[in-house]
């Protein structure tokens, strides 16, 4: 019981930020993650043992987020509302902060142009750090589907000139 | 191609900019604590949840039940409370000596059609038989209906509270000559039977003279009126091409409407009382809105009750009169050789077979559609349930 409690507490920040990236609304994300964790707690007997539980947790979180997205069209409402404006500083120096904020803004804008079925795997893969098999569990699709969706998402993101410029800058460094 | 490192760094930076709400984990713990006690029971509750096979079995049972209901409803051509009489034409009633006076109220020879439920040559609707006090005639027209509803109650045994029956009838008459004159006899019936002419039209000159009249007759006098029209149809040079009457018991609808109106009136009174106690403008407006809603519903139901009351007080009898065309000699070429008859039979049987196939497609399509819809519903329900569990 304590193990589960501590695991949920440890997982909370990343799950919350994943939900924020999917929903782009901190308030909605907090509600979604709370719902998700409540479900995890209620149905804790169904949690798979070992490494599978991380994918299972994200499956519940993603489901909670998707339910909110579909019910309230959160993403559509917040796609252009400047949700990133006024985000707090990370305390890593003005130049680094500015650069990170610019990259974050580019990624956010590029993500906002992705459809939901591509955006979620990208967030799970590149932010939450899930493997393709874990993403497959989380979004309840086959691993092949995840692979093709990630590939399609990368192809679309490569059309974004700002992200391409960032990539070239990284290579130059 | 975009660098995965850039994507990871960008997302990490973006994610880091969302601060975890202070005390969120503690709030979550606080939410989970009361739930711990329910956790065991919740797990126990879902321990017996249906499997996919169980869902399929339940869906199949639902489809079977629905198909059974559809066939039960489809196989019943008329509601059980509805009575009907139909006499089709083809019989000639212009035999000498047959009664022809419009004013006759005695028993009239009547062709017995399928579904006739009465005796004494008339159409019977059970309770509607009495010849009660007549209502004085004063005016004709639709507005007359509302004014005379109370008077009509004395003519309808069930109108004051028990049975409410909507009666309608349709008679097609064909006469050798004088269609307009016969139509005049028909419209005169309305006065004789304490009713009125709701609609009337006639055509003379040029083509074939014809006419049509819609009579509204007190329900108690409906049988008499039908008998009188029959008598006209049995007159010399006349025949009944079609006679159809029907009655539908709407007592339950009537009682239901009355009950709903009573309940709405009570609700309105309560809201009015509440309105007098309202302290703020917001409260006043809210209560007034509710009163308006209730009043609207009340007026709609009262309108329906008025229509139903009119229909059950005055029956509707539509009579059409057509003058027979002069016989025209038609030269018929008989080519009824054996091969020709065989071909005709073949075509006829083909058409009948085609009819049967088309008739069978309807129920099959219904079953497929309903089954498909249920299957889809069950499948999505199962998926939703499964998703809600995790």
Reconstruct the topology from this structure.
The complex is a heterodimer of chains A (173) and B (390).
Chain A: H1 2-23, H2 26-42, H3 52-72, H4 74-78, H5 94-112, H6 116-126, H7 132-139, H8 143-157, H9 161-172
Helix pairs in contact in A: 1-2, 1-3, 2-3, 3-7, 6-8, 7-8
Chain B: H1 4-16, H2 24-47, H3 52-74, E1 82-88, H4 143-147, H5 149-153, E2 165-175, H6 179-192, E3 196-203, E4 210-218, H7 222-233, E5 238-249, H8 251-277, H9 281-313, E6 314-323, H10 338-389
Parallel strand pairs in B: 2-6
Antiparallel strand pairs in B: 1-5, 2-5, 3-4, 4-6
Strand order within the widest sheet of chain B? 1-5-2-6-4-3
Shape of chain B: flat
* CATH superfamily annotation of chain A: PhyR, sigma-like (SL) domain
The arrangement of helices and strands of chain B along the chain is: HHHEHHEHEEHEHHEH
Instruction: Give the termini separation of chain A.
Output: 48 Å
Number of domains of chain A: 1
The overall average pLDDT of chain B, rounded, is: 73
Poorly predicted segments of chain B? 39-48, 76-83, 89-160
> How far apart lie the N and C ends of chain B?
37 Å
| CATH topology type of chain A | Butyryl-CoA Dehydrogenase, subunit A, domain 3
Give the strand tally of chain B.
Answer: 6
- The proportion of strand residues of chain B reads 5-15%
The number of helical segments of chain B is 10
Cα-based radius of gyration of chain B, to the nearest Å: 35 Å
CATH architecture of chain A: Up-down Bundle
Strand/helix succession of chain A:
HHHHHHHHH
Overall average residue pLDDT of chain A: 79
Biggest interface pair, counts: A-B, 53 and 39 residues
């Amino acid at each position: 019981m304590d193990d589960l409690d501590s695991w949920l507490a440890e997982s909370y920040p990343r799950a919350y930020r994943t939900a924020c990236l999917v929903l782009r609304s901190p308030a909605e994300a907090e509600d979604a993650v709370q719902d998700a964790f409540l479900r995890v707690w209620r149905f804790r007997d169904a949690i798979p043992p070992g490494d599978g539980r991380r994918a299972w947790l994200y499956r519940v979180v993603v489901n909670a987020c998707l339910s909110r997205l579909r019910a309230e069209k959160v993403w559509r409402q917040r796609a252009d509302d400047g949700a990133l404006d006024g985000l707090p500083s990370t305390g890593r120096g003005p130049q680094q902060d500015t650069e990170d904020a610019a990259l974050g803004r580019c990624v956010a804008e590029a993500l906002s142009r992705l459809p939901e079925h591509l955006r979620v795997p990208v967030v799970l893969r590149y932010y939450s750090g899930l493997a393709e098999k874990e993403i497959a569990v989380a979004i309840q699709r086959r691993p092949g589907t995840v692979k093709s969706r990630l590939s399609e998402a990368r192809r679309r993101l490569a059309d974004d000139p700002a992200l391409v410029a960032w990539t070239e800058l990284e290579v130059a460094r | 191609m975009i660098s995965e490192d850039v994507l990871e760094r960008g997302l990490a930076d973006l994610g880091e900019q969302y601060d975890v709400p202070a005390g969120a984990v503690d709030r979550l713990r606080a939410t989970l604590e009361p739930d711990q006690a329910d956790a065991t029971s919740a797990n126990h509750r879902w321990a017996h949840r249906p499997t996919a096979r169980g869902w399929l079995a339940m869906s199949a049972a639902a489809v079977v039940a629905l198909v059974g209901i559809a066939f039960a409803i489809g196989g019943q051509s008329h509601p059980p409370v509805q009575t009907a009489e139909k006499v089709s034409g083809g019989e000639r009633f212009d035999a000498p000596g047959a009664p022809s006076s419009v004013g006759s109220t005695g028993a009239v020879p009547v062709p017995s059609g399928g579904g006739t439920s009465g005796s004494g040559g008339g159409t019977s609707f059970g309770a509607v038989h009495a010849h009660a006090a007549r209502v004085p005639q004063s005016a004709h027209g639709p507005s007359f209906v509302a004014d005379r509803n109370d008077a009509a109650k004395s003519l309808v045994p069930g109108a004051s509270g028990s049975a409410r029956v909507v009666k309608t009838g349709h008679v097609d008459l064909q006469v050798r000559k004088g269609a307009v004159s016969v139509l005049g006899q028909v419209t005169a019936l309305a006065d004789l039977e304490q009713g009125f002419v709701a609609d009337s039209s006639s055509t003379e000159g040029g083509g074939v003279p014809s006419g049509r009249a819609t009579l509204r007759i007190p329900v108690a006098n409906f049988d008499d009126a039908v008998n009188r029209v029959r008598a006209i149809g049995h007159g010399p040079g006349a025949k009944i091409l079609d006679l159809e009457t029907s009655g539908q018991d709407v007592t339950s609808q009537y009682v239901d409407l009355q009950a709903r109106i009573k309940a709405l009136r009570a609700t309105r009174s309560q809201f009015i009382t509440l309105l007098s106690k309202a302290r703020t403008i917001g409260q006043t407006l809210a209560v007034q809105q509710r009163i308006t809603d209730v009043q609207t519903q009340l007026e709609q139901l009262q309108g329906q009750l008025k229509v139903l009351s009119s229909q059950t007080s005055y029956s509707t009898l539509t009579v059409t009169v057509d003058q027979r065309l002069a016989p025209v000699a038609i030269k018929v070429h008989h080519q009824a050789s054996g091969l020709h008859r065989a071909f005709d039979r073949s075509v006829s049987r083909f058409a009948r077979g085609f009819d049967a196939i088309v008739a069978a497609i309807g129920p099959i399509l219904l079953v497929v559609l309903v089954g498909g819809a249920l299957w889809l519903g069950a499948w999505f329900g199962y998926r939703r349930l499964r998703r809600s569990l995790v």
